[in-house]
Amino acid sequence: MQHVTLSNGVQMPILGFGVYQIPPEDTERAVTEALAAGYRLLDTAAAYGNEKAVGRAVKNSGIPREELFLTTKLWVQDAPAQHNTLRAFEVSLGNLGVDYLDLYLMHQPYGDVYGQWRAMEGLNREGRVKAIGVANFSTDRLVDLIVNNEIAPAVNQIETHPFFQRTADQELMRERGVQIQSWGGFAEGKNDLFTNHLLAEIGAEYGKSVAQVVLRWLTQRGVVAIPKSVRAERMAENIDIFDFELTDDQMAAIATLDTGSTLFFDHRDPAMVDWLAGRRVDG
Ligand code: NAP
């Protein structure tokens, strides 16, 4: 497995396993199979409702804690954010059954962002979280957070896939020392991604699937990817991307698929802000 080095020196696998939308009752099996397939980075969130099942799979795997890279996410909390962030952190840690996290992400750029961030900075300083970061931050919000706080986010996890490539955002983040991580790397199959002609043609040259081309393209750009699958054969397929390399011409051809806009929703849409702020996550 290749790794990237975060701004604070922490090593992060460039490919991991995401568990969004895996029902809690299926998550322990899926994570057990993902660990057996070789994944060591696991990406969950308090809002996914499956942290406990991730924790059981981790415990039963017997894999030493230091060989794993565990990420979970803080949901938008009520004020006072300081108190609620620490409470939410303890709940997530308890759910996962571990005594530190490798990466704790602020899940949404809403609510008392500064209160949440300062509490997360405290957890980072105490060593209870090796790195802290954010998700779904536009670059202006990201820079605002960086310039007005002591610790800069080590990671920004954002929608990134062949139809929304985030190249300029990645460049800005690189300049600021923030690692880009892709969510929805397959666009959850939207736009017929898995049967895309260009991606299939490129894959055929190497005996690789569209999924493998997409993950190779992301990681070759230096983007950390966390594909989700509930199927063991796809988990194995998705991690088998380190034995081929896309050419500059192929990277340039894939760049033409970019539409420059989201296939999911715009985090700046007021209706979305309302909807996400109305969601409550309890343990
Ligand atoms: P995704 O990884 O883009 O796509 C998952 C879909 O692709 C599933 O339907 C899966 O089906 C299918 N799939 C997986 N491997 C495949 C393969 N080799 N061939 C064909 N189909 C394949 O979607 P995502 O789960 O939304 O994103 C990945 C992770 O990012 C999440 O799990 C989560 O950890 C994170 N995320 C974060 C945020 C955020 O706000 N921070 C938002 C969304 C996601 P099967 O399961 O049936 O195989």
Describe the protein's architecture and organization.
This protein has 283 residues and is α/β, with parallel strands linked by helices. It has one domain (3-278): TIM Barrel, CATH 3.20.20.100. It contains eleven helices and ten strands. It has helices spanning 24-37, 51-61, 81-96, 113-125, 139-147, 167-175, 197-206, 210-220, 232-239, 248-255, 270-277, and strands at residues 3-5, 11-13, 17-18, 41-43, 69-74, 101-106, 129-135, 155-159, 179-183, 224-225. The strands form two sheets. The chain has an eight-stranded parallel β-sheet with strand order 3-4-5-6-7-8-9-10. Strand 7, helix 5 and strand 8 form a beta-alpha-beta unit. Helix 1 (24-37) runs parallel beside helix 2. The longest helix is centred in the N-terminal third of the chain and has 16 residues, at 81-96. It is globular, with a radius of gyration of 18 Å. The model has no long low-confidence stretch (mean pLDDT 96). The structure holds NADP nicotinamide-adenine-dinucleotide phosphate. The site of NADP nicotinamide-adenine-dinucleotide phosphate has 28 residues, from helix 9.
